[in-house]
Specification:
The complex is a heterodimer of chains A (179) and B (264). Helices cover 77% and strands 0% of the residues of chain A. The N and C termini of chain A lie far apart (67 Å). By secondary structure, chain A is an all-alpha fold. By secondary structure, chain B is an all-alpha fold. Chain B is built from 14 helices and no strands. Chain B has helices at 3-14, 19-30, 36-51, 59-75, 80-93, 96-117, 122-145, 150-160, 168-180, 184-195, 201-210, 217-230, 235-244, 250-263. In chain B, 25% of the residues are buried. The chains are: A mainly alpha (179), B mainly alpha (264). Chains A and B meet through α1, α2, α5, α6 and α8 of A and α1, α3, α4, α5 and α8 of B.
Amino acid sequence: MLRVKSGQLDQLGLLFERHNRSLYGFFFRLTTDTDASEDLVQNVFLRIMKYRHTYHGDGKFTTWMYHMARNLFADYYKKQKRMGYKEDVETTDRYFRDDVNAESTRIQQEEIDLLQKALDRLSLEKKEILVLSKFQEMRYREIADLMGLTESAVKVRIFRALKELREVYEKLETQSSIY
Amino acid sequence: MEEQYMSLITDYIDGTLTVDREREFRQYVDEGHIVMEEVEAMKQMQGVITLAERPEPTEAMSEGFYQMLAEAKGTERPDPSAGFLSQLSQAFFTTVFGRMAFGGLLLVVGVMAGMNFGGGSADSEIGMLTQQVAEMQETMMISMLKEESVTERLKGVQISNELPRSNTKVTDALFMTLNGDESTNVRIAALQVLEGYADDPVIREGLINSISQQESPLMQVALAELMVELQEKKSIDQFKQLLESENTPEEVKSTLEESIGKIM
């Protein structure tokens, strides 16, 4: 049966409205780069549009979407590495330069920025699983499907990642209170 | 630390341990395999994550996406004849209403064939049949416009395109969709159908009144383009209201001003 292509395209608008913020959050936590994250979100939807005939409704749509998102991020990451992009220091330190804010919001902001800074010190694998589970609130079952792991393997990885994040965060916290 | 403890700790931090697993967890704590201090520190860390603000994209992302979508639609217009057939088959076979309507249609066709062969007056029967089919389509379309799924509602709008023009029930339902549907895509589809009826003064009036009810920039711009095409001077007051509203984005305002200029 022929599908009404324009009908499907209209649906894409709805999918975009539903998922763009969440996808943006995923990319932003991984890249800390607004422009790159917005481009990546755009590319995910471009791919969804291009490959929509390959999605048959089996499995969750979000898993399929994040599968594309991960592939696109992997390409982006490789490219950044080839270009000799220096990780964290430059991008994360700029969060500490903001002294215009009022004291209370500054403290709150610092805590969050410290979190991003700590997150950036983790390996990509650990960072990604934390972003998906704790920031994007994706279910362990879905993460397991996405990564081809068992659910308990996902829990083990989350434990390791959260433990390391805690250690890095604590270290950064001590450092920032000294300066 | 062994992996079985790790998985238990993750569940403990999330608060999702079952009674049995909770017992197991406590036992490992008592035996010293799991150190509560460390677990609590991790739980606190998770708390910090929960408080983190969600990063928000800029408006440019949405704009870029809709531009891409509009371009894709321009290049992927379906073949009209195939479009009609597939629309028809989709309308009939993909929904409960569709299947009901198809069943009804078969029945009517059967009755008509019987009467025809029985020597009844064919012309009046066909007239009745056409009317019945139209009524069925109408009911189906109105029910579909109330569906929760956006796709169903879009299909409902598409069906309305096939219905007789002067039917106020259909146009009323389309106006309800145009002004009240939560999806911009469905509203745009309704607008496209209503555009075709714009010669009718009542419909035209309805379209003009719809301007100030639209909050989406896409809809505001689409209506502005239509009003320019229709050279409808009565729409200017409505556009002025949008221009004065703080909620109207600057880019839309400049497009509206341009449109007003073209109408005047």
